[in-house]
Amino acid sequence: MDNKCGNSAVRFCSAMFDPNLLGDPRVLMNLLAHERRQRAENQTRECRQTDITLEMRKNLAHWMLQVCELRLCEEEVFPLAMSYVRICLSSFPLHRDHLKLLGSTCLLLASKMRNKVQLHISILEYYTGGSVTCHQIREWEPFILNILHWDLEVIISHNFLDHMLERVFCSLEMRASLRKNAGSYATLCYTDCNLSKFAPSTITGVCISKAMQDFGFVVSPAEDLYTFLSALTDTTTDEFLACQAEMDSSLYVQMQ
User: Fold this and answer.
1) Which class is domain 158-254?
2) Please, what is the average pLDDT of the chain?
3) What are phi and psi of 7, to 5 degrees?
4) 49-147 and 158-254 share one CATH topology?
């Protein structure tokens, strides 16, 4: 707590990464096991949305990302919130008028989990232009928690970034640059619902591969890199390449 001239301000300090955890293969294995369990559970949800189009979901994702950027949220808030949204949309039918309410509530929950300071409900109401009220968000919060079975530790691509980059042979300085670029790609992937069919760990591997290409990393033959990264995520090379093709297509569309 800092107190100067009668004003109070809270200072936050981000935790440092523990090299013992990043270097321990058991941690990565446990993350992959948790990911498989969650994906198996989510695949049992078979709700079909009749009033929500892919374009609406895309617009919601970009709105949520914009809110996170404007409020300087931690990088994990948006993908975590989008993961909540996708689970909910696969769990119960939603009217289009409630789509932004769902997104706002999921942002609130994700900010409580991953942001230094949670997004205030009044801020979320403001960014909806008044189409969603604070009262509605408060009502929906316990509803969404029940849909998620109070399991808010949903595995996202960003959970794997540092663990996988720890195993890439490069300098610490270069690793930091790769981390930044791969993290940006991973965030953009959560704006495209077509990529949700791939495991978060697979998406992470593809994002790291893309970042390495951006910085001119040459691995010859190229299949060696794909084999290495796909092995880290316990997936097949074909699945890795399919995810890469889907991501390249998504990024091309977004940059137009």
Assistant:
1) mainly alpha
2) 89
3) -105, 140
4) yes
Domain ranges of the chain: 49-147, 158-254
The pTM of the full predicted model, rounded to 2 decimals, is 0.90
Q: Which CATH superfamily is domain 49-147 in?
A: Cyclin-like (1.10.472.10)
User: What does the CA dihedral 72, 128, 89, 94 come to, rounded to 10 degrees?
Assistant: 170
Whether 247 and 185 have beta carbons less than 8 Å apart is answered as: yes
Three-state helix/strand/coil letters over 178-238: HHHHHHHHHHHHCCCHHHHHCCHHHHHHHHHHHHHHHCCCCCCCHHHHHHHHHHHCCCCHH
The C-alpha atoms of residue 250 and residue 148 are separated, in whole angstroms, by 28
Judge contact between 94 and 56, C-beta under 8 A.
Answer: no
Q: pLDDT exceeding 90 applies to what percent of the chain?
A: 68
